[in-house]
């Protein structure tokens, strides 16, 4: 005899797995993180909150580390830490100071869309041997990368720097990408070396920027960039084309002892902002002649005579 069953209750699969895909709100003590790493356990701390000062200084971590979507409530210290696998810190939040001094990333380093609310220290000869992804990140404190080396792609696209930025004495051995980045306070690229394409297109420098004594081995582009503060390129060296198409200079532009092959810039973009220096004017006038920008040459020469008279008086 057939039995008639009642209505079948269909439960949507997404209800059964309600927690799947939602952010984990685990709170993990920093001491527990250290204990798991020292025990050789997988470093899997995505989507959680780390409480307490996390200090992993001097450790050699063989596998990849996962701190994506993680909130660090207190300072973190990775000084002299070696990451032999990929390091994932995407969309993370550092609420205290973040120390990565003298650290070594032998895989790719992912910091994209992260927020540094304290000071960030990637200085003192830190080395990125893979690609370094810091795009769309926000640095609300000071950021120090002084003396570090990027051997792979250095991706700082669309990042915002709200504190002082120290990029001095850096070596970029591959593509240095700073497109659409915004520097709201003084930034110093002094004595840095760009071995590959240096890309600052559409970037905004809202305070003084220093490129003094820096070397650009390949083409560099500052097209459509805005310099609201003073821009200092004194004693810098452009070995390939230097592109400054449609660049806006609202502060003073310093080109004393600057050497370049071809500087693609128009006099109306400089708009009288060039700091007086005889050699700088002479080099710029010769550059305009070599490029066939004769009208720019005439305007530059006229401004030079005025500036020179003012200096004599």
Oligomer: single chain
Q: Would you tell me the structural class of the helices and strands?
A: alpha/beta
| C-alpha termini separation | 117 Å
User: What shape does the CA trace take?
Assistant: elongated
Largest sheet strand order: 1-3-7-11-15-19-23-27-31-35-39
Number of strands: 42
DSSP summary: helix tally:
5
Spatial extent as radius of gyration = 26 Å
Show unreliable segments.
1-24
Largest sheet: 11 strands, parallel
Mean pLDDT value: 92
Q: Which strand-content bin applies to the residues?
A: 25-35%
Task: Give the % helix.
Answer: 10-25%
Written overview of the protein:
With 313 residues, this protein is an alpha/beta fold. It is built from 5 helices and 42 strands. The strands form 4 sheets. It has an 11-stranded parallel sheet with strand order 1-3-7-11-15-19-23-27-31-35-39. An 11-stranded parallel sheet has the order 2-6-10-14-18-22-26-30-34-38-42. The protein starts with 12 loop residues before the first helix and ends with a helix.
